[in-house]
Amino acid sequence: MENFITSQHYINNEIVAEKIAAGDFEVQVSPEFEIGGETFRVVMDGHHSLAAAIEAGVEPTIIEQDATENDRVALLDAGDVEAFLAACWMDGEYQYAISGKAVW
User: Fold this and answer.
1) Eight-class DSSP state of 7
2) Mean pLDDT, contiguous 10-residue spans, the chain (104 residues)
3) How far apart are CA 101 and CA 104, in angstroms?
4) Residues 66, 102: contact at Cβ < 8 Å?
5) Predicted pLDDT at 90
6) For residue 70, how many other CB atoms are within 10 A of its CB?
7) Cβ neighbours of residue 72 under 8 Å, at least 6 residues apart?
């Protein structure tokens, strides 16, 4: 999970609490891709579930999406990492999903 990145910075603590209560720790991620020799995966959906898993001290259930489940993955399949990252952009600069540190 160290290589999970996201551009979603907003996390609602009430939603996280609801996810913990429901045991919803399912996180959808992209396939792995490389930039500058480093390997990454984008958190595609389940940001609040990931935060809930971290807060609850449990391992999240990681589901890798493919292009049939998320059209944006087709950009990765075509080798267009830049367009993929642009299509996945949410509300801030890309950061590591666990630590919150900037990626670039």
Assistant:
1) S
2) 94 98 98 96 97 97 97 97 96 95 94
3) 9
4) no
5) 93
6) 16
7) 30, 44, 84, 87, 88
Angle between helices 47-56 and 13-22 (to 10 degrees): 70
Q: SS3 for 51-74, per residue?
A: HHHHHHCCCCEEEECCCCCCCCHH
Domains of the chain: 4-96 (3.90.1530)
As given in the structure block, the two tokens for residue 18 are 């609801």
Q: Which two tokens stand for residue 82?
A: 């830049």
Q: What is the DSSP letter of 99?
A: T
Return all residues near 63 (Cβ < 8 A) that are at least 6 apart.
26, 27, 28, 29
pLDDT of residue 41: 98
Q: Decide if 70 contacts 44 (C-beta within 8 A).
A: yes
Structure tokens at 35: 């930039």
Separation CA 85–CA 94 (nearest Å): 9
What pLDDT, on the 0 to 100 scale, is given for residue 82? 96
